[in-house]
Specification:
The protein is an alpha/beta fold. It has five domains: 44 residues; 220 residues, Rossmann fold (3-Layer(aba) Sandwich), CATH 3.40.50; 220 residues, Glycoside hydrolase/deacetylase (TIM Barrel), CATH 3.20.20; 78 residues, Sandwich (Immunoglobulin-like); 40 residues. It has 19 helices and 30 strands. A nine-stranded mixed beta sheet has the order 2-1-3-4-11-10-9-6-7, sandwiched between helices. Helix 5 crosses helix 6. The longest helix is centred in the first third of the chain and has 30 residues. The radius of gyration is 29 Å and the shape is globular. Bound molecules: zinc ion. The site of zinc ion has 5 residues, from loops.
Length: 641
C-alpha cells in the first residue's frame, strides 16, 4: 500500500507546477494517509470479524470441533498457535491479538501459556484485548484453579467432578439474552465421563450462572475489564460429524453443544446464521374433511386455534380426494387462515413410500399429486405442496421421486430412510432442514409432549412443527391449548402459517462485514421483504439440488442472473425500503402429473378395504378395545397379503 503511493508520487509529480507543487504534495500525502487508515480499519475489522482459535502447539479435539461448529454457523476461524517454533508472541513478547478479537481456547492451552516465562503478561494482554473469550475443559487440578483465579478473581474457587448420572442441567431463567429459547429449561442426564463443575466462592458477585449441573455452575459468564468471558467446565465439544443412530436425540450432546453455540451467538450476533422469524404449524395426520373425525372436532379445534393464535395443517390422504363434500370444503375455505391441507402419501398403504423402485415411486408420487389437484379443482381447496409420509416410512429414492413434481419439502417425524439409515449425523440435526438426500429438504416434526425438543428447534432456527392424530383429542383441545401456550412462551416471535409457508420461510440469514444480508434457503422459493429504512443488498444461496440440472432463477416472475458457487446456486439482489421480492429457482426436471397411472384392480380393492377399515377404527371403534383388536388384525392381514 505505502509502496504503491510512493510510486504514484514519483510518476505523476508535475515538473512545472511551481506554487501548486506544495499544495499537491500535501493533498497527495493526506490522500495517502486517508487510504492507509481506511485500509488499516478494513484489515483490523476483517481480522476481528474472524473467530480466533488459540491453541497450544497443536490442535486438541475440542479445538477442531469448535472450529467445525463455528464454520457451520457461518464464522470463519483463524488458528493462533502458541508454544511452537513459529511462536513470535512468546519469543519476542509481540502482542497475541488485535483489540476486539473473539477467542475460543482451552484451559489446558492457557495453563501452558501461564507456565512459560512472559506467559502471564501475554495472558493479561489476551484479557485486555479480547472482547469475547470462551474457555472450556477445566480439571480439578491446582494449575487450573490458579488459572480460574487469574481469569475471574475469587468468584470461582475450584473444579469438581460430577459423581452422579442423576444430576441434570438447569438453564438459567434470568439470562435470556444468552440462553434464548432454552431459558429456564432442564436437560440431562449428566455425563460423569465428561462433566465437571465449578465451585463458586461464597457471595460471588459479577458471575452469571448460565447453566448449572446439580446446582453447581457448569457454564458461567463474567467480565474482566472489557472482556466478556464465558467458561465451560466440561472438556468435550461435540463433533458435528458424529453419526446419530435412530432413536437417539441430538439433546444427548446438550452439554457439549449448547454452551459453545451460546457463546458464538453472543459474541458474533447477526454475523452468524440465525432465524429471527421462526414459523410454526401443527400437522394432524389422516382425517377426512368433515365436521368430526374420530375424536377430532374441527369446530372445537378452530376455537382453540383462534384463541391461541396457531394454525393446523391436515395431512390429507389423496385416495380420499372424491370424499370431501362442498359443504365441508366451505368450512375449510372460510377458515383458510387457520386450516390448510397437505399431501399424506397416496393410498396410505403400509410403507408405500418405503420402496426403492423408481418407476413405481414415480407412479405413486404422480398419482398423489394428480388426486390432490383434482380435489383442489372440485372443492376449490388449495393444498400445501408438502409430503408427509404415511407411518413416517420412506426411502431416499422417494425424496428423489418428489423432486420433479413441484413439491416444496417433506415433513416427517424421522430423518431415517429405509435404504440409507446410517448416514445421518449431528450436523443434519443442527441444520434447519435435512438436505442429505438429493438436496431435497426434509423438515422434522415432534409430538406435543417434548417441550425441550421444541425449544432446541427454535434455538437452532428451525420451524416449530408439531404432529398429532385424532386420538390426541379424546379429552378435547385442552392438552394442545396448554402445550401451545408453553411453546409460545419459549419464543414470542413464532409466526403460525400453513405448512408450505412454514417450510418456504424457514431460512437462515447473517449480515456479512460488507453489510450484505446473506440468506441460506432450503426450498426452491423464498419471499424477501425489506422492512428497513434504507436500501439493502441480499445474496440468497441454496445448496445445489442436482449438479447436472440446469438452474434458472426468476425474481417476481422475470429471469434473473444466478451463479453456481460454494456448492450451491446464488442470486444477488437489492431492495429499496418497503420493497418485496419473490425468488424462485427452476430446474429442468419439472413434470406434469398423470391421473392415468392408476393402481391395478387388486391393489385398488385392497386399498379400498384398508382405508375403510382405518376409518371404521378411527370413527367408531377407538372406544372399544375388543373391536379395536379385530380391526388391527384385519389391517395386518391386508398388509401381509
Ligand atoms: Zn397417516
Amino acid at each position: 500500500m505505502e509502496r504503491g503511493s510512493g510510486n504514484r508520487k514519483r510518476i505523476s509529480m508535475p515538473q512545472t507546477a511551481g506554487a501548486f507543487e506544495g499544495t499537491w504534495a500535501r493533498e497527495a500525502a493526506a490522500d495517502s494517509l486517508r487510504r492507509r487508515q481506511r485500509q488499516m480499519t478494513h484489515d483490523q475489522r476483517f481480522k476481528t470479524e474472524e473467530l480466533i482459535s488459540l491453541q497450544w502447539q497443536s490442535a486438541e479435539e475440542s479445538d477442531r470441533n469448535l472450529i467445525s461448529l463455528a464454520e457451520m454457523m457461518g464464522l470463519p476461524a483463524r488458528v493462533v498457535g502458541l508454544g511452537g517454533p513459529e511462536d513470535a508472541a512468546l519469543r519476542e513478547g509481540s502482542p497475541l491479538l488485535e483489540s476486539g478479537s473473539r477467542v475460543i481456547t482451552s484451559a489446558r492451552a492457557l495453563v501452558e501459556l501461564m507456565g512459560r516465562p512472559g506467559g502471564a503478561v501475554l495472558l493479561d494482554d489476551l484479557l485486555s484485548k479480547a472482547s469475547h473469550l470462551f474457555v472450556c475443559g477445566f480439571e480439578p487440578l491446582k494449575s487450573h484453579e490458579t488459572l480460574l483465579a487469574k481469569l475471574c478473581g475469587d468468584t470461582l474457587a475450584s473444579v469438581r467432578k460430577v459423581e452422579s448420572k442423576e444430576s441434570r442441567y438447569q438453564v438459567s431463567g434470568t439470562a435470556r439474552d444468552v440462553c434464548l429459547q432454552l431459558s429456564g429449561l432442564t436437560f440431562g442426564p449428566a455425563d460423569p465421563d465428561n462433566d465437571v463443575v465449578f465451585v463458586a466462592a461464597d457471595g460471588a458477585s459479577n458471575l452469571r450462572e448460565l447453566i448449572t449441573l446439580g446446582n453447581r455452575p457448569y457454564f458461567v459468564q463474567t467480565t474482566r475489564s472489557s472482556c466478556n468471558l464465558m467458561l465451560m467446565a466440561g472438556h468435550r465439544i461435540a463433533n458435528v460429524d458424529s453419526p446419530v443412530s435412530r432413536g437417539v436425540s441430538p439433546l444427548k450432546w446438550f452439554a457439549q453443544l449448547v454452551p459453545p453455540i451460546m457463546f458464538l451467538r453472543h459474541a458474533f450476533g447477526e454475523r452468524c446464521w440465525h432465524n429471527d422469524a421462526p414459523r410454526g404449524c401443527l400437522v394432524i395426520d389422516d382425517p377426512l374433511l368433515k365436521p368430526t373425525y374420530g375424536f377430532l372436532d374441527y369446530e372445537d379445534l378452530l376455537g382453540t386455534m383462534k384463541r391461541r393464535g396457531f394454525t393446523t395443517c391436515i395431512a390429507f390422504i389423496p385416495w380420499n380426494h372424491a370424499r370431501t363434500s362442498d359443504r365441508n370444503a366451505g368450512f375449510f375455505k372460510r377458515n383458510s387462515d387457520r386450516y390448510s391441507i397437505c399431501v399424506h402419501g397416496c393410498d396410505h398403504t403400509k410403507a408405500e413410500f418405503g420402496i426403492t423402485d423408481s418407476i413405481e415411486l414415480d407412479r405413486r408420487v404422480s398419482l398423489a399429486i394428480g388426486r390432490m389437484t383434482l380435489h383442489e379443482k372440485r372443492t376449490g381447496l388449495p393444498f400445501d405442496k408438502v409430503m408427509v409420509f404415511p407411518q413416517g416410512i420412506f426411502s431416499s429414492a422417494a425424496l428423489k421421486a418428489l423432486k420433479p413434481y413441484d413439491y416444496v419439502a417433506v415433513v416427517n417425524s424421522t430423518p431415517y430412510p429405509v435404504d440409507r439409515p446410517d448416514e445421518i449425523c449431528l450436523r443434519d440435526f443442527l441444520d434447519v432442514a435435512i438436505m442429505r438426500y438429493w438436496n431435497f429438504p426434509l423438515f422434522l416434526r415432534h409430538y406435543p409432549v417434548d417441550l425441550n425438543a421444541c425449544a432446541l428447534d427454535l434455538f437452532l432456527g428451525r420451524p416449530l412443527l408439531l404432529v398429532e392424530h385424532h386420538k390426541y383429542f379424546k379429552n378435547g383441545c385442552s392438552a394442545l391449548d396448554e402445550f401451545v401456550s408453553r411453546v409460545q412462551a419459549l419464543d414470542h416471535r413464532i409466526i403460525w402459517t400453513n405448512l408450505e409457508s412454514a417450510c418456504v420461510n424457514s431460512f437462515l440469514k447473517r449480515v456479512d462485514p460488507q453489510g450484505v444480508i446473506q440468506m441460506k434457503i432450503y426450498t426452491d422459493r423464498v419471499s424477501i421483504a425489506n422492512n428497513d429504512s434504507e436500501r439493502k443488498h441480499y445474496r440468497v444461496w441454496r445448496r445445489t439440488r442436482d449438479e447436472a440440472a440446469v438452474i434458472e432463477a426468476t425474481l417476481n416472475g422475470k429471469p434473473v442472473a444466478c451463479q453456481l458457487e460454494d456448492g450451491g446456486v446464488s442470486v444477488s439482489l437489492q431492495l429499496d425500503p418497503g420493497d418485496r421480492a419473490d425468488l424462485r429457482l427452476w430446474h429442468t426436471e419439472s413434470r406434469a402429473f398423470s391421473e392415468n397411472s392408476s393402481s391395478g384392480l387388486i391393489d385398488a380393492s385392497r386399498t379400498y378395504l384398508r382405508r375403510h377399515l382405518c376409518e371404521l377404527r378411527d370413527n367408531y371403534v377407538s372406544k372399544s378395545e375388543l373391536l379395536l383388536k379385530l380391526i388391527e388384525s384385519g389391517r395386518k392381514l391386508l398388509s401381509k397379503s
